[in-house]
Amino acid sequence: MARSPEPPRYYAAAGYHRPSPSSSVAASCVVAALFILLAAGGAAAALFLLYRPQAPAIAVTAVQLPSFASRNGTVAFTFQQLASVRNPNRSPLAHYDSSLRVAYAGGEVGSMYIPAGQIDGGRTQYMATSFTVPAFAVTSSAAAAASSSPAQTITVPASGPSPAAVGAVALQQEQPPPQQQVAAPPVMEVDSLLVVKGKVTILRVFTHHVVAAKVCRIGVSPADGRVLGFRC
């Protein structure tokens, strides 16, 4: 039987050797593993873009002070705020530890916690909060305006036009002609902070915590507690 010719000697000198079957199998396994990793990464990126968690969107629609009392340089009132919270995610949003806080002159004067709940994906939930703010001291200008009228408690109906619209109309009606301009009436500015915390569970496996906040500055008449307007 004829033998196969051996490779020239200079091939051996150059380091030539036949590839073994085991090395070919290992290279194929490495290529397959890289392909699986790339496919898994692409699928994860697509799922993240499709189900990426987003914080809820908050919009304050109305602010009212149904009751207001002023006495001896202090004021106390009942604070009401209506807000809408929209869940932009495809998955439900379970909210908890949410709160509404009211501050004046940089210090907190009242707060309340919002009961836990759930907002379905793509849905909007309205949150109506109301709590009593105990008496607190106001600045000298606001106290002077409040003391100019006798101690009283003002009750405002819960329904009616938007406080912002009412305040704008009242200011336009009370504004004198240009030649008779007078000093603007004092305004007590109160800040409200609505914080919504929760979690979104993606594909019933991955949980992502989200938080959103909305700050509003509310102009209140220190004499009778009218809401002159608010800006968020």
UniProtKB/TrEMBL annotation:
Signal peptide: none annotated. The keyword Repeat does not apply. The chain crosses the membrane at residues 25-51. It is found in: Membrane. One of its GO terms (cellular component) is plasma membrane. Its main location: membrane. Keywords: Membrane, Transmembrane, Transmembrane helix. It comes from the Eukaryota. PANTHER family: GLYCINE-RICH PROTEIN FAMILY (PTHR31234:SF40), LATE EMBRYOGENESIS ABUNDANT (LEA) HYDROXYPROLINE-RICH GLYCOPROTEIN FAMILY (PTHR31234). This is Late embryogenesis abundant protein LEA-2 subgroup domain-containing protein.
